Amino acid sequence: MELLLDDDSTSLGYWLNWRFFLCAPIVIVSMCVAAFIIWKYEYSDHSEPDSKGNGQESSGLWYADEVWRPCVQEIHPICLMTYRIIAFCLILTALIVDIAVQGQSMFHYYTQWTFTLVAIYFGYGSLLSIHGCFQHHKSRTVYKFNNNEADAEKGPYASLACGETLNGVQEKKAQNYQEKYYVFRTALDCGHAFQVMFQMTAGAVMLTDFVYWCIIFPFLTAKDYKLSFLTVVEHSLNAILILGDTALNGMRFPWFRISYFVLLTGVYVIFEWIVHAYVSMWWPYPILDLSQQYAPLWYLIVALLHLPCYSLFALIVKAKYYMLSRWFPQSLECLR
């Protein structure tokens, strides 16, 4: 959906006008506020989650297994793993076809940024789920392992009989503890990054599909514009797959993570500004064109749309946990 050039975006006059000086603060201030919220809530230990996981948790309070364990115990982790692998194959196939049809120009669209992010999300999630399934299988033998370890540590005499000293036993235990802590810390960091990706992707998907189907398609497309099958897939498959994963996973959806969603959009807008400052080309979305008289209003509307889009998805997650707490009160994983 290419647009006719109204003004040369590479000229200095295109940027030195009142429209740009109104749009720029909207983007920059939003990103600064988002960065401050991330710094305040993500890297502080003052906020604690409630029993249902609706609070604003700091990164250290996440459970390492939330990224691969389903929301209820009746669902085996292999089900979530299978879903993510299938979703990754579907989204990757659609992305490859899109690249083959449109070429590099597709990455000027926020839709393709979101689509690529969804593909990365499911690819990364598949790896974490595969690892989680192995952990789930190993957990069945934990009790036996602990008993054997306890028998081996009943006293120093067994170790001394094998030529070991008491200090050697203590050093071995300390080394094992450090190795276990390193593995746990790595798993926690990987899980935290994945959960941030989930919340950022969910908001971006809602914004992409809402803006296209409710604003761009009905009001800002040419009269002879024909809706292709690939366009429908781009603006529906991502939401369907994310909602399916949301129904299965046991991850939380804290409000302050909207900040990552805002930063993603801000980075995209600044990227488009830089590209158009050096290359005179069509704008991927008419609402980004700074030569339009109502450009500041469009920028403000899209900025404000982040709130209802993220709120709608947060409401879906909250409704899911509410229903599961009524149907599966004893096995709901998020109430640990």
Q: How would you describe this protein?
A:
Keywords: Membrane, Transmembrane, Transmembrane helix. The chain crosses the membrane at residues 18-39, 83-101, 113-134, 202-221, 227-248, 260-285, 297-317. Residues 1-6, 46-60, 155-166 and 169-184 have low confidence and may be disordered. The chain has eleven helices and no strands. It starts with 11 loop residues before the first helix and ends in a 9-residue tail after the last helix. The protein is 68% helix and 0% strand. By secondary structure, the chain is an all-alpha fold. Helix 3 (77-102) runs antiparallel to helix 4 (110-138), helix 7 runs antiparallel to helix 9 and helix 7 (166-219) crosses helix 11 (295-327). It has one domain.
- Assign an overall shape: globular
Distance between the termini: 49 Å
Mean pLDDT: 81
Biggest sheet overview: none
Our count of domains comes out at: 1
**Helical residues, percent:** 55-70%
* C-alpha-based Rg, rounded: 25 Å
Strand content: under 5%
Stretches where pLDDT is under 50 for at least 5 consecutive residues are: 1-6, 46-60, 155-166, 169-184
- Summed up, the helix count is 11
Quaternary: single chain
Number of distinct beta strands: 0
Class per helix and strand makeup: mainly alpha
Order of helices and strands: HHHHHHHHHHH
